[in-house]
Amino acid sequence: NYLLGVGRADCTGPVAEVPLMGYANPEQVGSGLLMRLYSRAFIVADLDDSRRVVFVSADIGMVSQRLRLEVLKKLKSKYGELYRQDNVILSGTHTHSGPGGYFQYTLFWITSKGLIRPSLNAIVNGIVKSIDIAHQNMKRGRLFINRGTVENSQINRSPFSYLENPAAERSRYSSNTDKEMVMLKMVDENGQELGLISWFAVHPVSMNNTNHLVNSDNVGYASYLFEQEKNKGMLPGGGSFVAAFASSNLGDVSPNTKGPFCVNTGESCNNLHSTCPVGGAKMCMAMGPGNDMFDSTRIIGQNIYLKARDLYEKAYQEVTGPLSSAHQWVNMSDVSVELNATHTVKTCKPALGHSFAAGTIDGVGAFNFTQGSVEGNPFWDEIRDQLLGEPSNETKACHKPKPILFSTGEMTRPHPWHPDIVDVQIAAIGSLAIIAVPGEFTTMSGRRLREAVKREFDSHGTPRMDVVIAGLCNVYTHYITTYEEYQVQRYEAASTIYGPHTLSAYIQLYRGLARAIATNTVQDLPRGPEPPVFNIGNMTLLPPLTADRMPVNKTFGDVLQEVRQQYRAREVAEVTFVGANPRNSAENATEHNFLTVERYTSTSDSWHVVWNDASWDTRFYWTKGSFGRSNVTIEWHIPRDTEPGVYRIRYFGHYKKKLSNNRAVFIPFEGTSSVFEITTL
Q1: What is the pLDDT of residues 426-479, one digit of tens each?
Q2: pLDDT of 643-658, one tens digit each?
């Protein structure tokens, strides 16, 4: 038995004008909303409340160091020493459709227009609020664990790298991806359901890099389905049951199960360099199982949800035992790794290889880079040397065979481009060990890490531990491939920033944490060097919020393009309003809802909200015009099982108005469509 608490809070942030974080495509800027982003928090405490562990999964690309440090600072001011570096794990789901701009290292500013305070604040506040809610709702309860196989939901997107791993190692596994889902179920002592955490390795990139609507992708849709099922009668985002679908060792795992094809010719481009005969690497893109990216998101999300539901209903194995957690900061650019009694190697200062710029089959790069380049390109190297300086010989030698594109560890203006100080962390809840990793481990890297940690527990008298990897935790350090995968330098290897021995270094470090937990010597672990906090004002290229204007003879919220009078299920109701910049709302109203779909009830002569902007079936588009004008289009993709009746769509916004004394105010407004009827098929 434990004390358990769960909480969920909105962390969406600005849905317009902010670059989305994930594909590193500067053109992929938010301009609307498909689904809201949430932070989901789970607290487990001993019955005597002597120890606690917090696990947070947030619908964001990854947790940044800046984000973690700000969250911990807020928790400290609220709760003192209760929630700390060592017992709080913050994990990102790795959606590629959330707002960016919450990083302090310079590399991430390039594609996300600097440090964007409203974006960072929304995530910090959302995470803290979800922990607050969990903290306030602690009650006695029980934990159950289950595991099972998810089919038809992933492929390995770098199979040629995977094949570099030793044949004897590969022969122990039936697949080149980890298909196993691990699920932790939480109920209170009366058997009331509280929530669940699922860990499964897949990239949330069913929505591709042409998408401009903020959303939580396939794993977010799985959360949505589970929470809608358990929180009956509540709008999306409401209700007390919390279902987190957290990331794991997803480094080389894509949900785009049809595999890579040349967009121009339709032939397969499943080759070492992911290139097409005509158009090169730019034309090689992977396709999901659906007709379009929305459909693929739905299919993959539903697969994951259905497996989770099955495992949840059959979770009988109880988790019991003590809680513990261990954390260290490590300078990852300078770790000595003992490979064996005679051989010691070192990690390197961070650097990205040429193939980093190629991108992947889930989102290709902007220039003519290809994956699997072990040679540099003189043209780009020359430009790089002129703009950013040439990598030192030491760094070049350390990273071999990686040809270095950006020697980020040697780039310090205006601030360092990449972190040196990295978090390693393990939390143990009875027989479950959660390894919080600071990036994207590939399938085989994750297998090696889990096995090493499990062996360490075994050899120190803690056998039969369930070891799970939680991805994208605490600080972002890109990818971690095996030494063998590193040799062929596809995207994941080129993005293994601390060099060929990165994985070996992490295995050594996490074994140390596991040993400390197993032998009850966590207090003797050195804390390690603290990460820096850079003093960054509002360094951003985000356009300033100007005053909103409306067309002649119109006002904000007026309808420009009306709905039809009648629809059937599976059609799309669409209405366009005179709009205003959605950033106004994000910055001036917490928990702002942009739209509702409402149904008329004749018996009470009133309207009832049936859907909101967090609903999967509603889409909110913002189109920026000139001279401060903009339009908002709301679509409702009417579900099959919609009750016939009379409906309307409403829009809620804020417009910015300049006052004479050079101050500005934000004024709320709303718009309502005409009523329309939904008839039976």
Answers
A1: 999 999 999 999 999 999 999 999 999 999 999 999 999 999 999 999 999 999
A2: 999 999 999 999 999 9
Quick check: pTM over 0.85? yes
Q: How confident is the model at residue 590 (pLDDT cuts 50, 70, 90)?
A: low
So what's the pLDDT on residue 378? 84
Collapse the DSSP code of 467 into the 3-class scheme (helix H, G, I; strand E, B; otherwise coil) and give the result: strand
Domain boundaries, the chain: 2-321, 558-679
C-alpha dist (Å) from residue 105 to 364, 412, 491, 649: 23, 9, 21, 42
Nearest to 62 by CA among 101, 14, 29: 101
Catalytic residues: 254
Q: Which residue has the higher pLDDT, 424 or 340?
A: 424
Q: Encoding tokens for residue 27?
A: 């053109």
Separation of alpha carbons 313 and 45, rounded Å: 24
Under DSSP, the state recorded for 272 is: T
Residue with tokens 């040679």: 375
CB 576 within 8 A of CB 633: yes
Q: How far apart are CA 161 and CA 139, in angstroms?
A: 47
Residue 299 in this model has a pLDDT that exceeds 90: yes
Q: What is the C-alpha R_g of the chain?
A: 25
The CATH number corresponding to 558-679 among 2.60.40.10, 3.30.70.2470, 2.60.130.10, 2.60.40.2300 equals: 2.60.40.2300
Where are any strands of DSSP class E within 84-204? 88-92, 98-99, 139-149, 155-156, 180-188, 193-199
CB 100 within 8 A of CB 123: no
Amino acid code (one letter) for 195: G
CA 126 – CA 102 distance, rounded (Å): 13
Residues tagged in the binding site annotation: 94, 203, 440, 479
What whole-number distance in Å separates Cα of residue 479 and Cα of residue 492? 6
Long-range contacts of 231-239 (CB under 8 A, 24+ apart): 235/609, 235/611, 235/612, 235/614, 235/615, 236/35, 236/36, 236/611, 236/612, 236/614, 236/615, 236/616, 237/8, 237/10, 237/36, 237/38, 237/612, 237/614
497-553 per-position pLDDT tens digit:
999 999 999 999 999 999 999 999 999 999 999 999 998 876 788 888 999 999 999
In 3D space, the residue among 321, 311, 525 whose CA is nearest the CA of residue 432 turns out to be: 321
Summary count for the chain: helices (H), strands (E): 14, 38
pLDDT > 70 fraction of the chain, expressed in percent and rounded? 99
Q: Which comes out higher in pLDDT, residue 216 or 414?
A: 216
Work out whether the CA dihedral 515, 517, 519, 523 comes out positive or negative: positive
* 330-349 mean pLDDT: 96
Characterize 111-128 residue by residue with b for buried, 16 or more Cβ atoms within 10 angstroms of its Cβ, and e for exposed. Answer: bbbbbbbbbbbbbbbbbb
Give one word for 123, left, alpha or beta, with left for phi > 0 and alpha for psi -120 to 50: alpha
213, two tokens: 């609507």
Look at residue 681 and tell me whether its pLDDT is greater than 70: no
Binding site per annotation, positions for Zn(2+): 94, 203, 440, 479
Residues 6 or more apart whose CB falls under 8 angstroms from that of 43 comprise 3, 4, 5, 6, 52, 53, 54, 131, 134, 135, 138
3-class secondary structure per residue, 546-611: CCCCCCCCCCCCCEEECCCCEEECCCEEEEEEEECCCHHHHHHCCCCCCEEEEEEECCCCEEEEEE
Q: Are 419 and 105 in contact (CB under 8 A)?
A: yes
